[in-house]
Write a structure and sequence with these properties.
Layout: E1 2-3, E2 6-12, H1 18-23, H2 25-29, H3 39-55, E3 62-68, E4 73-83, E5 90-99, H4 108-122, E6 128-130, H5 137-145
């Protein structure tokens, strides 16, 4: 997969990637979220969530990094076992998908999602799920193009 003049490969994350994973947290908190949460609250949420995911990997979880042929890290995906909200069966869950600004629009998110689907199939899961903020239309549209459909909608009323 081309990016600039090179290609992209996907590899397992290592301990040496930890700072890169945490450094992408601001990219995630900067996406459109609920209007009633300010940027500071979104940043704190994302920092907590990213740190918890990176520091406390669940059994059978997997973190993959997309890198250019000259070893520039472009983004990552973290998958872990989850539970289906209806059947309570174990399913795959994409906890985080994050890219560097340079990697956007290059097909890297699609590449990482295909690896997540492969992982879920290897684990013999019937479903692969994820959460996305409803106001993040770019991400919602991306996931819908990839075959994801809304199962539930959590509604919130600020008081």
């Amino acid at each position: 997969m081309p990016i600039g003049t090179g290609s992209v490969r996907v590899r397992e994350a290592t301990q040496s990637d930890r700072d890169f994973l945490l450094a992408l947290s601001p990219r995630l908190s900067g996406v459109p979220g609920p209007a009633w949460h300010g940027l500071e609250a979104m940043e704190q949420f994302q920092d907590r969530y990213t740190a918890a995911t990176v520091n406390q990997a669940v059994e059978h979880s997997r973190t993959l990094i997309a890198v250019s042929d000259d070893d520039v890290r472009l983004g990552y995906i973290h998958m872990q076992p989850g539970k289906d909200g209806v059947t309570d069966e174990v399913c795959g869950y994409v906890a985080i998908l994050a890219l560097t600004e340079q990697a956007e629009g290059q097909g890297i998110a699609k590449l990482l999602m295909s690896h997540a689907e492969d992982w879920a199939r290897e684990m013999l899961y019937r479903f692969l799920s994820l959460d996305v903020f409803a106001d993040n239309r770019r991400a919602v549209d991306f996931y819908e193009r990839g075959g994801f459909r809304s199962e539930t909608i959590r509604m919130v009323k600020p008081l």
